[in-house]
Amino acid sequence: MSGFLQVALFRTMKRRATITISGQSIVFHFHCKSIQSRCFSLCLRTCSFGSLPDILSPEAESSDLLPQLFSILSSRGWRKDPLLKKLAPSLTPLHVSRICSFPLDPKIVLDFFNWIAGRPGFRHDPQTHLSLLNLLLSAKFFSYAEKIRLSMVKSCMSEEEVLFVLEELRKINRREGENKFKLTLRCYNTILMSLARFMKIDLMKEVYGEILEDKIKPNIYTFNTMINVHCKDGDIVEAKRYFNYIVQHGLAPDTHTYTSLILGYCRANDLDGASKVFSLMPQRGCKRNEVSYTILIHGFCTGGQIDEAKALFSQMKEDNCTPTVRTYTVLIDAYCKYGNSKEAFLLFEEMTDQGCEPNVHTYTVLVDMYCKESKFEDADRLLKEMSERGLVPSVITYNALVNGYCKKGKLGSAFAAIKLMESSGCKPNVRTYNELICGLCEQRKVHKAMRTLTHMSEINLSPSLVTYNSLIHGQCQAGYIDVAFRLFNLMVSDGLVPDNCTYSTLIDALCKDGRIKDAEMLFDSLLEKGISVNEVIYTALIDGNCKVGNIGQAKQLLEKMIAMKCFPNSCTYNALMDGLCKQKSLNEALLLLEKMVEIGVEPTVVTYTILIDQILEEGDYEQAYKVFNQMVSLGCKPDARTYTSFIRACCSERKFEEVENWMLKMKLDGVQPDLVTFITLMDGYGSLGLKDLVFDVFKRMFLVGCKPNHQAYSVLLKHLFCEKQIRDPESSGVVDVWKTLTVDSAFKFLEEMIRHGCEPCVDSYEALVWGFCKEDRLEDAENLVQHMSHIGIPPSEGIYTHLVNCCCKLGMYLHALRLIEIMVESGNLPRLESYMLLINGFSDQKQNENAKRAFNILLGCEYNYDEVAWVVLIDGLLRSGHVDMCSELLDIMEGKGCQLSSQTYDLLIKELPVE
């Protein structure tokens, strides 16, 4: 073959190869998961492309080692050959399989098989066993063959391997004549146990039938295996059938038999049946052991019968049974789940005092408990204790920690936990990142959650339905509904099937955005496709119609829902009731309450609060109080919103004493005021001219850990510092504080906060910056930021975002770009929305180089590249008509190796205008 030819890349499922062909020399560079990267050369006399498939076969890969291995094993002292030790690390199960076909003494091959099995990191697979088994059978070494056959069954590590071994052993079992080698009962029992590991119940029944066909009498191990697998499956009827076979075959059930039945009854949620079997064991002369006790204790715990579980635990000592780590952990887990952390830890201490060493699962249960109680210092202490005991936390342990931090909004700590996890050699799984994504979305940081999606792809973790649902929900919460739908399409292209949670999120978001027609079209498409629609989706659509005043359509949906055998819940009725109240149809709302009760749907605190709100708005305080008392008498505890309704009504009526009474009643009932309560109080006291009380409420909010939002600061500042009352016609007569508040008043407010013991934090400054930026008062906002820097408080991501967006709104794009550069340098992540505004602005002003400069900064940030294309290129540039700039920026992305999904490329092509 003349010239030089390079074939760049051959891909198979498990192997990549670069093949360089020059003259008559072929060099292979293999990259395998199971074999370290290595290369070898094959010199052939002739070569053609037609021979390449044979060259790339597994035989080619192992051909260089096999002649050397054959040469070594052909000598008597093969064990002492130094070359063998050098070759050993490179030997694979494939080599061992091939050596079985070489002309060697079968006994030597068997010895080599056992020798290599003892080498670190080597594991014989079923194919290796099968090759040796056939060799031993051809040599009629039947006793050795039986051992290898059993070893082959036990070597199975996956369901596929078990099925392969079963089929091969069936073939051998069907042989006749000199090669006859029938399966023994011991081998059959081992097969049954392997199948049971993967719950292959139907196959186990087939194998049991084959035992009988071979005229082999099953023993107690056979029946126990069959009983146990059915009990694990919760099929107690089938388990009892095999139990009867034990008696029919003249055998006696043993402890394992009865213990399996206890498990079966527990799995079938029949604790009485499980208890009867447990009590029967001593009567049948069968000793109960630790496993029998632990299974029944677990059953009681799962069924919520903790006292019965504890009593059974105490009985163990009387029965000469010592609780195991599993027994203790089951009970500790139950106490944790039912909120009795004190008892859980006492049991943990008893466990260690008794010399029973806790395992990783025990610690994981306690770590999870502490995280749910926000006792993170205690959780960290347990992690250190684990390390001191030589235990390595599992991915489940770390996931409990990550979940706990995310639930409390401690995202920095969650990321730190993941870093600690990775540094300890524990790989995060899909659930780890799902917890993180959910936490980021809850904190309205969906842009960072999308980056986490990218990271999952980089480490070969496939996103699950939960991953996408969390991201879709996050995008909808942030108002990016189009991005949510693109994620939906990406999810479908990944082979995931959307569920009711996916659709309800999208329909609810469309409704909240006022896009009722789009929501109804999506809803109708589900019905046309025959997709089952649940009450959550119906409720979202009913609520959406109510929000825009389509009460008639909402009522029709309720009727349709019932006709489709989809029964409404309290949330459904609450949505319709709220809509009726908003339209002043109080009597109809009260009739709906009666209907709810009539059909067995229990009203909730939300139901009663909706009615109380409307009754109070109509001025009937006494009627509202009657509904309140009715609610309490029915065992429905009022919440903060219920009390706030009365407090708001009293404030509007200027009934100061009544306000104090409701606050006192709220405190006595153990109900903590929420953000709306505090804002209502501040606004109410301010309206009454009680300025000192306004700040007292604000201080109380701080002390109880209720984080003020922009509205809280607006209300506070309105009553304390707004001397000039300017009414905004677009805000229903409400004073817009940010148009009148002076910078001096803002600084005075910060001083007042300090004087009242409310130390201003970054959130305080962000609220002020937000207000000024809302009114395009950029200079005033930047004065506040300079003051922050002067006193050592670094600006937050939110503050930078408000400044950047304000600059873009004012057309100050270069200033916005400088702010973004500062933002990135300080470790903050600018919002994609900000980049869209900036790049679009530069494109409008024909400042292409600055647009590219901003885009390059963007690509250096941790962003999901698909989302960059969706928001900046499509929603930003293409929708504004900047096709050429979009094309140039896409080239920059491709030049930097930013990989986009095929769906995004298709979307870009569709969005490009046709010339």
Structural class: mainly alpha
Widest sheet: strand ordering: 1-2-3-4
Strand content: under 5%
The outline comes out as: globular
**What proportion of the residues is helical, as a percent range?**
55-70%
Average pLDDT figure: 87
Number of helices: 51
Stretches with pLDDT under 50, minimum 5 residues: 1-63, 723-734
Biggest sheet overview: 4 strands, antiparallel
Descriptive notes:
- This protein is mainly α and 915 residues long.
- It contains 51 helices and four strands.
- A four-stranded antiparallel β-sheet has the order 1-2-3-4, with no helix packed on it.
- Strand 1 (4-11) and strand 2 (15-22) form a beta hairpin.
- Helix 5 packs parallel to helix 7, helix 29 (516-528) runs antiparallel to helix 30 (535-547) and helix 45 (797-809) runs parallel beside helix 47.
- The longest helix has 15 residues, at 159-173.
- Mean pLDDT is 87; it is low at 1-63 and 723-734.
Index terms:
915 residues, mainly alpha, 4-stranded antiparallel β-sheet, 3% strand, disordered N terminus
Condensed summary:
This protein is mostly helical and 915 residues long.
Helix/strand layout:
Layout: E1 4-11, E2 15-22, E3 25-32, E4 38-43, H1 52-55, H2 58-62, H3 66-73, H4 82-87, H5 93-99, H6 106-117, H7 126-138, H8 142-154, H9 159-173, H10 185-197, H11 201-213, H12 220-232, H13 236-248, H14 255-267, H15 271-283, H16 290-302, H17 306-315, H18 325-337, H19 341-353, H20 360-372, H21 376-388, H22 395-407, H23 411-423, H24 430-442, H25 446-458, H26 465-477, H27 481-493, H28 500-512, H29 516-528, H30 535-547, H31 551-563, H32 570-582, H33 586-598, H34 605-617, H35 621-633, H36 640-652, H37 656-668, H38 675-687, H39 691-703, H40 710-721, H41 737-740, H42 743-755, H43 762-774, H44 778-790, H45 797-809, H46 813-825, H47 832-844, H48 848-859, H49 865-878, H50 883-895, H51 902-911
Antiparallel strand pairs: 1-2, 2-3, 3-4
Helix pairs in contact: 5-7, 7-8, 8-10, 10-11, 10-12, 11-12, 12-13, 12-14, 13-14, 14-15, 14-16, 15-16, 16-17, 16-18, 17-18, 18-19, 18-20, 19-20, 20-21, 20-22, 22-23, 22-24, 23-24, 24-25, 24-26, 25-26, 26-27, 26-28, 27-28, 28-29, 28-30, 29-30, 30-31, 30-32, 31-32, 32-33, 32-34, 33-34, 34-35, 34-36, ...
